[in-house]
What does this fold into?
Amino acid sequence: MPAMTKKPSDDRSEIPFGTGGETQQRGGPVLTTNHGVPISDNQNALKAGARGPTLLEDFVLREKIFHFDHERIPERIVHARGSGAHGFFECTTPIPDLSRASLFAKKGAKVPAFVRFSTVAGSKGSKDTPRDVRGFAVKLYTDEGNWDLVGNNIPVFFIQDAMKFPDLVHAVKPEADRGFPQAASAHDTFWDFVSLMPESMHTVMWAMSDRAIPRSFRMMEGFGVHTFRLVNAAGDWCFVKFHWKPKLGVQSTTWDEAVKISGADPDYLRRDLHDAIENGDYPEWELGIQVFDQATADSFPYDILDATKLIPEEVVPVKIIGRLVLDRNPNNFFAETEQAAFLPTNIVPGIDFSDDPLLQGRLFSYMDTQKSRLGTTNFHQIPINAPRCPMHNFQRDGMMQTMVPKGRANYEPNSLAEAGEDGGPRASDQGFITLASIAEPAAEKQRIRADSFADHFSQARMFYVSQTEVEQGHMADALIFELSKVKLEHVRGRVLGQLRNVDEGLAAKVANGLALDLPPAVAPAREPLDLDASDALSILKKPPVVKGRTLGLLVTDGADEAIIKAVTEAARKAGATVKIIAPKVGGVKTKAGKILAADEMIGGAPSVLFDAVALVMSKTGADALTGDKAALDFVSDAFAHCKAIGNTPEAAALFAKAGIKPDDWFFGLPQGADRLIQKLPERNWVREKKGM
Ligand code: HDD
It folds into this structure.
């Protein structure tokens, strides 16, 4: 019987399948059109005869193709590539004296959260590990509305005034005429722009540091960047900066790793977040606040309204008031992560903006961009964006309206209640009240940059001198790499001229790396100050955390199971994960003759994907791998990336073939298993110095 004339089965779980003849029995609901009509055949279009033309009448086909044709929406103009997760925020130290925000009122009180991490410059399909700032956007669904803290993993920004944002983004995105490079700042237009905008130099230093190549979203700090204000019930206010502190510590990859990871696993950070949550290793951050008053703000040698400046934690300590836990992956990437709309304008009573001109510009941009991306002013009705508290107002209609308000009260004031009708919602005396601006009351309207924003280099210098020697070396290497991709010689020279204002030693190193003479310094608008170094700005000065790290364990046939078990157990005890890598993904036959399944094969799991590696192998297994390029790269990369290496004696053959001389970061197994695991979050940086 031709499929088109087949009657829908009475048993609605019997779904036609294949060429139309056979059916597939499976559970689940009946397939229907978008309008609820049961579909009898999802495999064949309606035709005039078996080999005849397809009929326009086929509403099932037309609806399916029509919907498919419109599946894509515009990607975010920046932060296009991202991934998100659900969780909750819990107040651990209430601060009613500082803020009347309901989410900070009670110890133990929880609100649902959705967080989206992102890169900035790359498009949606780009890789996870370019050198770039990472977005750290948090939506907290409080009982007084949504609070979105739309921050980054870097506490400062490239520009001081929102007026410059489109220029910054145009400059860093693929060049207009050629459409490349993708997800990279290493090109003419970016460096042309930033070298002409000395205010960017502090954030450029961060972008050239290892902060811009994070090992995991779970191991990044997050920052609200701007100065905001907290307001208590009495209307008293103070300034505040928000910080997210990861429980797993801060960790980055090296540049060479980041480059290689982007080939081995372009979804590295996305997968890491997803898998950790699936495995029940819920990432967690503490929410910290730096609180200060106007007098303190006035005492700083920089302006707290200038988003290119931070306040060192040593100057204003970070007080921990809550925790953020991500414990659920989205069910659907598009519906939730892609459609998530973050708005810096989403604040709640108890929190307010400051006059930071960058923040003020953002207050317009995000609402506007959602309309273009999500197509309707009703984007707040999409479940991921909708508040979890009651929402009533007189706004009506618009595209994709899904609410069905009753009655005729769509205006205010009205007296409909006097006639017994529903008069609609009323303003509340507990509602959001905007704080008075702190600008001079009689200020003239003018397009101007405040004089207090003129110091562009003091904090760039402070950031640089706060780093360890290793981190400073990475910054110099990053600058040399980036500028080597800049074809315009005058731009290279101008960057060097700017760098001299940051640090003469750094400028000289970079010039040497480019084989250029140091040009004169570009005259700074204000002579930089030598601010005190801040240890909190360095990654390597932070305590290493073993939890959450992954060991890549390379095994061969004949490997000793007891040793594998000892290593796995040591990792488990420390909260780390082990991935078994074998020559073939089906696994290996151990010394005891048992099959040990592998997670990955060597060619699919280079050592750049792991924090440290271990090699447990038999003599024949090791000898066989000396002829395997992927195995040789596995060990030589692990060594070059300064990682700890655990091994059984048989692996010596592989080290010799790879030209590696074991040092004191090689740990004999099984006795060195615990010491190896302790080294997961650390690197033996002296290898870098030896030029490996
Ligand atoms: Fe922005 C997205 C963070 C300055 C305009 N921004 C966006 C996202 C993050 C940030 C994390 C992604 C949100 C998500 O995951 O959906 N942006 C920042 C930070 C800034 C900043 C920390 C400075 C401190 N941004 C900034 C300025 C403007 C914008 C000055 C415009 C005047 N940003 C946007 C945008 C985006 C955006 C075009 C693109 C997608 C979106 O808003 O929702 O409106």
Observations:
- Confidence is low (pLDDT under 50) at residues 1-23.
- Residues 76-79, 82, 116, 118, 135, 137, 150-152, 157, 162, 165, 225-226, 307, 340-342, 358, 361-362, 365-366, 369 surround HDD (CB under 6 Å).
